[in-house]
Amino acid sequence: MKKYLIIGSGFSGAVIAEQLSKNPENHITVIDERDHIGGNCYTERDSETNVMVHKYGPHIFNTDNKEVWDYIQNFCEMVPFVNRVKSIYKGNVYSMPINLHTINQFFNKTMRPDEAKIFIESIAKKDIEEPQNFEEQAMKFIGEDLYKAFFYGYTKKQWGCEPTELPASILKRLPVRFNYNDNYYANPYQGIPRDGYTGIFEKMLSASNIEVKLNTKFDSSWDLSEYEKVFYSGPIDAFFDYKYGRLSYRTVYFERAVAEGDYQGNPVINYADPEVPYTRVHEHKHFTPWEEHEKTTYFKEFSKETEEADIPYYPKRLTEDMEKLALYEEEVKKMDKIYFVGRLATYRYMDMHHVIGEALDLIKKLK
Ligand code: UDP
Q1: From atom 7 of ligand 1, which residue's Cα is the shortest distance away?
Q2: What pLDDT, in 10s, does the model give residues 66-79?
Q3: What is the pTM of this model?
């Protein structure tokens, strides 16, 4: 029998456990410090409204990786879902990400795609050759007015710093479109699991050679010698007892409310004005349009710096973080049977499909 330890039951841990469980000679222990599996993808029905709630914020599954799309459907029924986000700025509702509707509405014009392209090129800061940060990336592609309206305030609220301090890669997540396509994502496969995400994790971890231990926190004093391999998906700095210092993360928290009927008519509405203290409002019953609910529950999302008791969400990857990360990564290289997997352990801004894809690839490599 070969014993494996997996620290964390989010997608990294659950996929690796599921893959390893196919060999009946393997025994896999999955631990999680929370009282539930699924990490930040955890969903549960709201006790008051019965709406399926994404407890740690909205998760819309989207990928361009056919293997990942096929794989996830072994564990759930994915219902096709297109996320159409709105953004409110100075009393107007716009389409987000920026598309032809946003551009025409914002500049009070009726341009066709080619005209809009020429117009945006005329206001974009073309002299920026290689954008060095979030702000330069935005100025190069959409110019100052659209950037200031839709990104500057929102990004300062979400990340708690000047956009000039953030990597350009964060903005590259969002497309700019010269048509009326208002699909938030550009990936070809998009959906929401019919019965939420928690059921996916239950299925992934259901094999008899997987043992799940909740409310169990890993620390560096553990003896790992009995394990063939260990997969760690917690924060990389925590694994090393923060010996090179803490990496910075943003965390989010929510203010829940309940109303009759339909509160905002859309799953997600962003608030671009810096005076509004929250970044966005999500109303979860719109993630399951196939269900009917008389009441609704919605959440105002606020963002703040991660403190010791908070759940880390978004790796900030500021210059000083990257220096510390390099030191931690040197330590990781020296280890032979411990694998650092997923968003927190690799300190990268990864979506669910990236995490699943990398976990599947790692298992293939180890075979
Ligand atoms: N962003 C923004 N305004 C918006 C939406 C996004 O300024 O209305 C910025 C923000 O900095 C965010 C980044 O664009 O972190 C990427 O957006 P995405 O929706 O990918 O972020 P997520 O919430 O999925 O992490």
Answers
A1: 151
A2: 999 999 999 999 99
A3: 0.96
